[in-house]
Write a structure and sequence with these properties.
- The complex is a heterodimer of chains A (114) and B (116).
- Chain A is mainly beta.
- Chain A is built from no helices and eleven strands.
- Classes of the chains: A mainly beta (114), B mainly beta (116).
- Chains A and B meet through β5, β9 and β10 of A and β10 of B.
Chain lengths: 114, 116
């Protein structure tokens, strides 16, 4: 059973601070890692993906991957109230012939306090 | 990414009835998936919709309860059969890959179902 673990939160940070969201996964063979943002009442939106060890930056978002520790994180710099949402970590598993599915963590609810 | 639409966006249904949810993508995709998200919970995969063959269901989900069709590479339906209040949930379709990577997924807007 593939597992993806996240702290459920809620995580509260003041506006302008760095929000740090963490995710661990059980499958050492995982190659790709995704972060989705889900606003209340909306569907998940893909905001970051990372395939290689190290950091990947996109605007205020940085994804960090450490495959040896089976750990992936998402940093949000200069947090804004509009970043308040639930953040879902997802890891794919493969079943052959190009078929795959995503296993999602339970999500971390982030609140950015003005 | 892809433009994905779902119909209906929401519905209120009576116990024992069935509802069919449609998912339409603006371009051909290899993979289509159906998820359920119960209130305050994360996403649970119901099944992978396979074009031209039977869907692949996850543990705990069966074809009689959740029949799925996928007649082509841009369209799929999920039916929730013989509904009970426990089926009240958001149902989401997703598609992929459709971008830079081989295995990402993009989600439709969801169908909010309430069963009375």
């Amino acid at each position: 059973q593939k597992e993806v673990e996240q702290n459920s939160g809620p995580l509260s940070v003041p506006e302008g601070a760095i929000a740090s969201l963490n995710c661990t996964y059980s499958d050492r063979g995982s190659q790709s890692f995704f972060w989705y943002r889900q606003y209340s009442g909306k569907s998940p939106e893909l905001i970051m993906f990372i395939y290689s060890n190290g950091d990947k930056e996109d605007g205020r978002f940085t994804a960090q991957l450490n495959k040896a520790s089976q750990y992936v994180s998402l940093l949000i710099r200069d947090s804004q109230p509009s970043d308040s949402a639930t953040y879902l970590c997802a890891v794919p598993t493969y079943s052959g012939a190009g078929s795959y599915q995503l296993t999602f963590g339970k999500g971390t609810k982030l609140s950015v306090i003005p | 990414s892809a433009v994905i639409s779902q119909k209906p966006s929401r519905d209120i249904c009576q116990r024992g009835t069935s509802l069919t949810i449609q998912c339409q993508v603006d371009s051909q995709v290899t993979m289509m998936f159906w998820y359920r998200q119960q209130p305050g919970q994360s996403l649970t995969l119901i099944a992978t919709a396979n074009q031209g063959s039977e869907a692949t269901y996850e543990s705990g989900f069966v074809i009689d309860k959740f029949p799925i069709s996928r007649p082509n590479l841009t369209f799929s339906t999920l039916t929730v059969s013989n509904m009970s209040p426990e089926d009240s949930s958001i149902y989401l379709c997703s598609v992929g890959p459709k971008g830079q990577g081989p295995d990402e997924q993009f989600f439709g807007p969801g169908t909010r179902l309430t069963v009375l």
